[in-house]
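Progress report, Aim 2. The chain analyzed during this reporting quarter is listed below.
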Amino acid sequence: MNSGDLQFFMAVFEAGGIGKAAERLNTVQSNVTSRIQRLEAQLGVQLFKRHTRGVELTSAGSKLVPVVEQINNLLGSLPTIVRDDSTPQGKLTIGAMETTTAIHLPSLLSGYAKAFPQVDLALRTGTTMELTRQVLEQELDGAFVCGPIAHPRLRTERVYDEELVLLADPDLDDLAQIVALGEVSIFVLRLGCSYRRKLEEILTNKGVSIARISEFGTFEAIFSCVAAGLGVTVVPRSMLSMIAARWTLSTHTLPPSEASVETVFIRRASAYVPNALSKFIDHVQEASQMLSNGRDFCQVA
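Predicted structure tokens for the chain:
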């Protein structure tokens, strides 16, 4: 099988048509058609359905896309692979949710950076949805996200469990008062935030309508609005000491079935793991083990 045929396949898939793919590849349409037909003959399946607007993938074609992406990823990694020795080095880009970054990561990242100074470590924050997409699209080497995550192209490593608590107006004494309101506004991070989905589920299960959803880019803006009595939000209990230093809010414990959330570390399920990422995963596993033994995540160094 010619790897070049796979690149023609991806060009047709990404362009949505034979003609556009030919323009992108700087060749004639007949060449693209023959390459796709040859690949289909070799695989024994039809990869595209042809129609007047272009082409679309068949079920077999959809299965081939992630395989070709993995092949391209490995080919692109060849220079790094052949230079990769026992010393972790090179660029390592990790993603994390805002809460994980604020509470759990500073010491872990600092300890890793000190242990492996030749690694160019970078951190990006985002929502679970954003980070998962970025790992799949090879923009991140791995990310801390809210689980569970089930995807055939991802591997997950459970890190720790969090207990969510509801934050509200300081004058609200208990959760029953919030339920009695009948409807509330919620203050959350942008769409794709897993805690946002959890809050919506909690309120819906209690029969509370959501009057308005206000999205902010920072927790500071969210906590300020909640402290002003404008609505509610949820955060991990581990954030409370940090929050109490700046804002006066009422804290409401949720039933265990609603409060528990899992944080996992995800990475692509590829055949090759660079030393820099391998050592980072070791740090993550050590941190997870410390938590299970009742020690602080941030003690990892």
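The mean pLDDT is 86. The radius of gyration is 24 Å. These observations will guide the mutagenesis work planned for the next reporting period.
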